[in-house]
Amino acid sequence: MMTPEQETPLAVKVYSERDADLGALRGATIAVIGYGNQGHAHALNLRDSGLKVVVGQRPDGPGWRRAVGDDFAPLPIDQAVKQSDFTILALPDMAAPVAYREHIEPHLRAGQALGFIHGFNIHYKQICPREDIDVIMVAPKGAGYMVRRAFQDGRGLPAMVAVEQDASGKALQTALAWATGIGAGRAGIIEATFAAETETDLFGEQVSVVGGVTALMKTAFEVLIEAGYEPEHAYFECVHEVKFVVDLIHSHGLSGMREHISDTAEYGDLTRNPRIAEAVKPLMQQILAEIRSGQFAEEWIAEDRAGRPRASQLLESERASLLEETGRRLRALGSASADA
Fold first, then answer.
1. pLDDT at 335 over 70
2. What is the pTM of this model?
3. What is the pLDDT of residue 61?
4. DSSP assignment of 145-212, as one string?
């Protein structure tokens, strides 16, 4: 086994708290637009880091009420942007372009910074900021509740940082201060570009973290059902146990995970996973090509504008599936035993 000194160095620059200066944002007013999954975590963490934060949100919606509950005095988006020196756009990808054009862009001043938590709208040109403002990104590698929880525990989640436009000459300093303010400097701030973050994030979601994992679980479940096995047996083996393996990988890596499972499971993994990989790799390459060409983005934008009919139909089909029905029954058993 290689020692840390012998391991291959990272191919990208990684910043830490030592490389950032929160002073770059002290005295500035930061507007976090959107108080949902990521927005609430960024707003709270930045405030707890001693920075001045205002929340811009649609009045009387759930985000507005949540912000009030967290002791913010939320403002309509236009007013929040007017007050800000630095605006973080934390709205969902499909909602952000209209909000930007109608409520944000008219109030941005030359030399200000505009922040994104995902590169989708910049990379696919759904938002095209003026050349006289900084355009930066801090994309945490985890859901908003994880960003918040890690910060409260004195830790942080890694994040990608990118600069698309540097009108002020201080864009990177602003981005690093933002990343450190949410706790990412404690774990690692990884240099990236909007394109790299967007394309790798979409690819991971579609073929590994979400789409790939769910496809493997569903297909394995179906194969066992079609072979005559009981749904409960299939669910436990192909769905329920995935969490334990993922937790081991998260803590110990692939090799470390194999040290914690049975010899039989390890041998089955090492000898069978190349066959699965060979079958799915061409599909993964095709999906990556669709992402890089913009085909997926065009499809998703069109689906959203049409009211998401296909997505709604697919979701309803999933909810009604035997796998989901079996899972609901088995999870209810666990809840009943925990309450006993």
1. no
2. 0.90
3. 84
4. HHHHHHHHTT----EEEEEEE-SSS-HHHHHHHHHHHTTGGGT-EEE--HHHHHHHHHHHIIIIITHH
